[in-house]
Specification:
single chain, 393 residues, alpha+beta, Anthranilate synthase, 10-stranded antiparallel beta sheet, 9-stranded antiparallel beta sheet, 10 helices, 22 strands, globular, binds the ligand C=C(O[C@@H]1C=C(C(=O)O)C=C[C@H]1O)C(=O)O, isomerase
Length: 393
């Protein structure tokens, strides 16, 4: 849908926003591939001021910033998991809309993995056990707990080549890179989950919850999918998400169409339960307003939201940062795509920091949830050149 949404490609020369970080002219500041095409942003023309966002609200501030820009401008970037933390949203200086076919040449030099740290994480197993106790005795029904993993290479990671490999692995996903202003770090990932996509006023959300790893043997793989589709635990986890989104969307959209049950969605490494929700976005609102109305869903946070978020802060050792947030773009008409920021890594020099989470409910098993996070790491591990097929660590 990208091609239809960019009114034209344009380039401006004057740097008007003194708060904007110096643009990286040599490298893309934003890449977002979906449906076979990629939006590539270069440089930073203006950044969304955190103070303005606090004053107006993030959605209105984003729309206002875009309204001040010339036709063809887009807003791109990331919103953290924690809504109280500052987003990194910017208007690229120049945007290209290109077919992915021409971009996945695979000619990039790849780094060689030297060390993987944190594959077995006993702290996560303890935290999952504590969460189950709290769910059984308290008011939280579901909480998503995440853990991290570090992968060190022999030389600097190249975000573009990791992005290309992620796309090749799962072309149906949303593959992205964002150059972060601090420390020359980048976030790269391939999200299977569209939180809000808007085209000509029509809103689509495709939440996922309920997961099983893909298996190499075809018959076993089909069997795993069938088990997932019939799993009461996974269907209940999924139901929390659909209920949350259907309620939350009513503040920004009408004419909701919500299927009665989920479908199976395969990615390169995982099976997921997914429900395609459609609605008509209220006039004057944008895709970011819709995404923010839903975020964070119980697929990444839990249910009820506030209590689950408090439990995450208590049980996870570090703040999530942009993992579990939103990544995407929006044009001046409010059209755009915002995906859940997961199956991702922060690349900083030769270090890649990965995050993955799993939904914990009353009848969860902490070891199974550890295995589920291990399976979710595989998307990024594969793109980094680590083969962990079949491993439950
Ligand atoms: C938390 C993650 O994934 C989320 C949780 C899922 C689940 O609990 O089944 C499925 C997809 C995502 O919404 C992750 O990939 O890190």
């Amino acid at each position: 849908m990208n091609a239809q949404l960019l009114e034209n490609h344009h380039e401006e020369t004057a740097v008007e926003d003194p708060s904007a970080p110096t643009p990286r002219t040599d490298e893309a500041t934003f890449r977002f591939a979906s449906y076979g095409r990629a939006l590539i942003g270069h440089g930073i023309k203006a950044t969304l001021d955190a103070e303005r966002a606090r004053r107006l609200g993030l959605g209105p501030a984003a729309r206002q910033l875009l309204a001040e820009r010339p036709p063809g401008s887009i807003l791109a970037g990331v919103v953290p998991f924690d809504r109280a933390a500052d987003p990194f949203l910017f208007v690229p200086q120049q945007v290209e809309d290109l077919p992915m076919r021409g971009l996945t040449h695979g000619g990039q030099e790849t780094s060689t993995v030297a060390e993987v740290v944190g594959e077995y994480n006993p702290q996560f197993i303890c935290a999952a056990g504590a969460a189950i106790d709290r769910i059984k005795t308290g008011t939280v029904e579901k909480v998503v707990l995440a853990r991290s993993l570090e992968v060190f290479a022999d030389k600097e990671w190249n975000p573009e080549s990791v992005w290309q490999r992620l796309y090749q692995q799962n072309p149906a996903g949303h593959s992205f890179t964002i150059g972060l202003p601090q420390e020359e770090a980048s976030i790269v990932g391939n999200s299977p989950e569209l939180i809000a996509g808007v085209l000509r006023g029509q809103l689509t959300s495709h939440p996922l919850a309920g997961s099983a790893p893909r298996l190499t043997d075809r018959t076993q793989d089909q069997k795993a999918a069938a088990v997932l589709a019939g799993s009461a635990k996974n269907l209940a986890e999924h139901e929390f998400v659909v209920r949350h989104i259907s309620t939350a969307l009513r503040s920004v959209a009408k004419d909701l169409i919500v299927p009665s049950g989920p479908d199976l969605l395969p990615t390169g490494q995982m099976w997921h339960l997914g429900t395609l929700i459609r609605a008509s976005l209220y006039k004057g609102l944008g895709s970011l307003d819709a995404a923010l109305a839903i975020h964070p869903t119980p697929a990444i946070c839990g249910s009820p939201t506030a209590a689950a978020q408090a439990l995450i802060s208590e049980l996870e050792p570090d703040a999530r940062g942009f993992y579990g947030g939103l990544v995407g773009w929006m044009n001046r008409d409010g059209e755009g795509e915002w995906a859940l920021l997961l199956r991702s890594a922060v690349l900083n020099g030769n270090r890649a920091t990965l995050h993955a989470g799993a939904g914990i409910v009353a009848d969860s098993d902490p070891f199974d949830e550890h295995s589920e996070t291990a399976a979710k790491f595989r998307t990024m591990l594969c793109a980094l050149g680590v083969d962990r097929a079949g491993s439950s660590l």
